[in-house]
Amino acid sequence: MKRVVALNVVGLTKSVLGAHTPRINAFLGEGQMSSFKPAFPAVTCTAQSSYVTGKSEGDHGIVANGWYDREAAEVKFWKQSNHIVQGEKIWDKLRREVPGFTCAKLFWWYNMYATADWTITPRPMYPADGRKVFDVYTQPMGMREEIKADLGDFPFPTFWGPNAGIPSSEWIASSAKWVEQKHAPTLSLVYLPHLDYGLQKYGPVAEEMGAEIEKIDTVVGDLIDFFEGRDVDVVLLSEYGISKVDQPVHLNRIFREKGWITIKDELGTEMLDCGASKVFAVADHQVAHIYVNDQSIREEVLAVLKAVDGVEEVRNAEESFGSEFSDKGVERSGDFIAVSKENAWFTYYYWMDDALAPDFARCVDIHRKPGYDPVELFLDPQISNPKLKIGKFLLKKKLGFRGLLDVIPLDASLVKGSHGRDNVCEEEQPIFATRGSHGEIHNAEEVFDKICECVKGS
Question: Which PANTHER family does the annotation name (predicted)?
Answer without folding.
Answer: BIS(5'-ADENOSYL)-TRIPHOSPHATASE, ECTONUCLEOTIDE PYROPHOSPHATASE/PHOSPHODIESTERASE
